[in-house]
Amino acid sequence: MAEVKLVDVEKRYGSFLAVPKQSLTIEEGEFLVLLGPSGCGKTTTMRMIAGLEEITAGDLMIGGERVNDKPPKDRDIAMVFQNYGLYPHMTVAENIGYPLKLRGFNRQAREARVAETAEKVELGKLLKRRPSELSGGQRQRVALARAIVRTPKLFLMDEPLSNLDAKLRVTMRAELKHLHHELGVTTVYVTHDQMEAMTLASRVAVMRKGRIVQLDTPKMIYSEPANLFVASFIGSPPMNLIDGVISQGTFTAPGVNLPVSAADRGNVVLGIRPEELDLVPADGEGPFSGLLYALELTGESTLVTLREGTTVVCARGGADFDAPIGTRCALVPKAGARLHLFDKDSGERV
Q1: What contacts 208, CB < 8 A, 6 or more positions away?
Q2: 154 closest CA partner among 186, 132, 127, 128
Q3: Within-domain flag for 149
Q4: Which residues are listed as membrane-spanning (predicted)?
């Protein structure tokens, strides 16, 4: 295990600033997820840690040692990529054991370690097969086994589950979570999938335009977003964000009239999550009202969307909720619901 520190690290490609100067400490044994949309700099940041991208400015420390000028092979890291990177002419056992072969392990030691590692990811019966004979999930497990077979200081994972179908992603998330608990190796994981981030991470670094805009536990990222970008990016369905004004202790917008504990101000955005809103019984009134715009049955619940003028509000109702489109409905915040207020111009929390 190793602590990783990025100290005023910056990455430029010519005149283009890909990752502005920033610092980040990844604790020993932590599972840190770099989360953000495509082009936000998360993969570039991870590749700098790996040594696959040169650092333009700043220092990278792994286990207290400056490694800016060390090649990847000397950083004691293991990487798992989106495309698996398996050798097609090798068997599963040979693919898993290849890092040990490079480090001079004898055949007997390699075979024992490969067998032990393969059992951890449920590949014990597939060791003689080649990658072409495996499913996508099995190939990903081979890539994971190859990474963990020698227990490096640091794991780097670049969207390793993005090529899998939804069911396999759920299974592999559980396997990754268990493996990290079992091995305790410091892990940096890159993804654009918020579900992966929320379920896997010790902490999440949300990135936008090369910068970390919030770094915290998944629970805090979800419940206390620092700005509008995080509020809109985290959550499925996303947080309701409503433009309005605050006057005399009341937030107002088309279809919204809600008491808030905040000073008067214009150009404010109110945020509330769909699961923190309740549907009011038929013909009832609530601080959120509008015409029923859409119903989406998700199985365990129904997403109910109301629209009034420019205001669109989504709530999570019961699976048995049904009403004709165009029906006037009302919503009320649940007891203990969190209301979030953001400045519309800066995007920051107020």
Answers
A1: 36, 37, 40, 229
A2: 186
A3: yes
A4: none
Inside any domain, residue 244: no
**pLDDT tens for each residue of 143-200:** 888 988 988 889 999 988 887 788 878 888 888 898 899 889 999 999 999 999 999 9
Is 129 found in the same domain as 79?
yes
Whether 55 contacts 10, CB under 8 Å: yes
| Confidence (pLDDT) at 144 | 87
Q: Is 251 exposed, middle or buried (0-12, 13-18, 19+ CB in 10 A)?
A: buried
pLDDT digits (tens, 9 = 90+) for 30-73: 999 999 999 999 999 999 999 999 999 999 999 999 999 999 98
Same domain, 126 and 56: yes
With contact defined as beta carbons under 8 Å apart, do 289 and 252 qualify?
Answer: no
Higher confidence at residue 140 or residue 231? 231
The CATH code of the domain that includes 301 is 2.40.50.140
User: Smallest Cα–Cα separation from 146: which of 170, 175, 123, 166?
Assistant: 123
Q: What are phi and psi of 327, to 5 degrees?
A: -65, 140
CB-based burial label for 35 (10 Å; 0-12, 13-18, 19+):
buried
Is residue 38 situated within a structural domain? yes
Q: Nearest 5 degrees, angle CA 335-CA 242-CA 193?
A: 85
Task: Residue 331: give the domain boundaries.
Answer: 251-258+272-339
Over residues 94-122, the mean pLDDT reads 91
Taking the C-alpha atoms of residue 62 and residue 2, their distance in angstroms, rounded to an integer, is: 6
CA-CA distances (angstroms) from residue 88 to 46, 130, 290? 26, 7, 58
Query: What is the tally of structural domains in the chain?
Result: 2
Rounded Cα distance between 78 and 151, Å, is 8
Distance CA(4)–CA(180), nearest Å, equals: 17
pTM value > 0.85: yes
